[in-house]
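Design request, tokens follow.
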């Protein structure tokens, strides 16, 4: 698969607006430089994901709902056609497949496979089928109407330690005031679906840990420019403290609710961006539900 380069933009350099302050910006630069050197020494392409490790002073949510929150990034992580994607729809699947894969449709070649919720349930009786679904698709999407039923269907293969939790999508833009009187609504808007998939594949996401204080968010890759990574770090911090992102974002409310911010690759130690205490680096070893494998 072709590796992603961050697209060029006309946005201001992160150093003019770094929310964590000048000292944190300079600390982040040094840490990124060290992680890039580490990646070059251990990876021929040195295209390693960079994870922002955020330790908070407050709980973000009381209960884990297994729903990834999308965080908008200035520099996108992937193009829409760079990921292998499976879509799980409500029944009947043929209606959605016909519309989404119709010649000339915005989603004609977007999905590697489209399966029904009924078929997904049948995978529960076959470990091999679940493993194949997991390994052959980088992104799993699910119709909002069956989304809450999936943890019982896909099980720990996908949900344990947030390994590959499905993303929720709407098959068509909701129409307020429209009642179906208990009937299954058959509507699909390929353009609307594509726009959601583009947002999911291009931006980063996280699942807030219930009762936890630590989580990880991808902010770029080790072969990107430092300025691009800093801009995306800024975007992530803004998402957590800015009220405009409520109710899904803005959960920290203010910067003072951050305990520490670090950055790492999947096989490196956590390097400082903003440290409140000397022991902040050790906190990355506990309380996290993230699995890098």
């Amino acid at each position: 698969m072709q590796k992603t380069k961050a697209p060029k933009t006309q946005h201001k350099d992160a150093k003019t607006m770094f929310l964590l302050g000048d000292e944190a910006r300079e600390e982040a630069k040094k840490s990124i430089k060290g992680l890039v050197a580490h990646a070059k020494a251990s990876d021929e392409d040195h295209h390693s994901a960079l994870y922002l490790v955020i330790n908070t002073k407050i709980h973000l949510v009381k209960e884990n709902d297994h729903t990834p929150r999308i965080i908008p990034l200035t520099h996108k992580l992937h193009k829409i056609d760079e990921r292998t994607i499976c879509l799980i729809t409500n029944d009947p699947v043929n209606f959605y497949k016909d519309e989404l894969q119709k010649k000339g449709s915005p989603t004609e070649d977007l999905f590697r496979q489209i399966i029904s919720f009924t078929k997904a349930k049948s995978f529960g009786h076959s470990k091999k089928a679940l493993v194949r679904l997991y390994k052959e698709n980088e992104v799993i999407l699910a119709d909002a109407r069956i989304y809450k039923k999936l943890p019982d269907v896909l099980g720990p293969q996908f949900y344990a330690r947030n390994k590959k939790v499905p993303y929720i999508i709407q098959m068509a833009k909701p129409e307020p005031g429209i009642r179906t009187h208990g009937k299954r609504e058959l509507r699909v808007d390929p353009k609307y679906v594509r726009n959601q998939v583009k947002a999911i594949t291009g931006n980063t996401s996280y699942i807030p840990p219930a009762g936890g204080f630590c989580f990880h968010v991808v902010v770029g890759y080790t072969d990107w420019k430092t300025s691009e990574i800093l801009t995306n770090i800024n975007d992530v911090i803004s998402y957590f403290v800015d009220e405009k992102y409520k109710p899904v974002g803005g959960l920290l409310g203010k910067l003072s609710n951050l305990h520490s911010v670090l950055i790492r690759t999947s096989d490196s130690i956590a390097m400082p961006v903003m440290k409140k205490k000397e022991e902040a680096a050790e906190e990355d070893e506990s309380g996290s539900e993230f699995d890098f494998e």
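Comment from the thread starter after seeing the answer: thanks! DSSP finds nine helices and ten strands in the chain.
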